[in-house]
Specification:
Blueprint lengths: L1 H24 L7 E4 L1 H7 L1 H34 L7 H51 L3 E4 L15 H18 L1
Parallel strand pairs: 1-2
Length: about 180
């Protein structure tokens, strides 16, 4: 008897739940999904170009100097292949190599720290621009095409150009405020 009552209650709940879902399905809003090629935005936008130029001006000379020192060490290494070269020259070469390696590690650390900061600024700018474009065009959801998972997207869903333009606009506004 208890099983029959429980089955009747379950059937009633399913029936009521099914009707409620059917009523709600008529009022479900249409979802509008957009896509953005973040790689394009990250490489072609004005702030990306400015960041690249900033990195080159800030670290270009030091990078060139390290490369030049590396080439000089390669030439020294060639000379060390001669069996007549003394132990002192070999030790000097090893010290020079270690010094260059340390300088290179320090340089790469500085560059990486600067890149992380620039990347964070860029991500904030891109997310703000994506939000503005998506909100203005009525999109509920925007995904990054380059992050994977999107195998096809209709061109009408592609917001890359609009986001790129918005990133440039926000970048210029930010530059004016400074």
């Amino acid at each position: 008897m208890r099983k029959v009552v429980m089955m009747a209650v379950m059937a009633g709940l399913l029936l009521v739940g099914g009707q409620a879902c059917a009523a709600d399905s008529n009022s479900v809003p249409t979802i509008k999904i957009g896509v953005v090629d973040m790689q394009t935005v990250a490489t072609q936008s004005e702030p990306a170009q400015a960041a690249k130029a900033k990195m080159e001006s800030k670290f270009g000379k030091e990078r060139a100097s390290l490369e030049k020192q590396g080439e000089a060490l390669k030439k020294k290494a060639e000379l060390l292949k001669n069996p007549k070269v003394g132990e002192q020259k070999k030790l000097d070469f090893i010290r020079s190599k270690q010094e260059l390696d340390q300088k290179t590690r320090n340089f790469l650390r500085k560059v990486e720290q600067e890149e992380v900061k620039l990347r964070q600024d860029m991500v904030t700018l891109v997310f703000s621009a994506t939000y503005e474009v998506a909100r203005a065009k009525g999109f509920n959801f925007v995904v990054d095409v380059t992050a994977g998972g999107v195998l096809y997207a209709d061109q009408s869903m592609d917001l890359t150009k609009e986001v790129l333009a918005e990133v440039n606009k926000l970048y210029k506004e930010k530059a004016k405020d400074k």
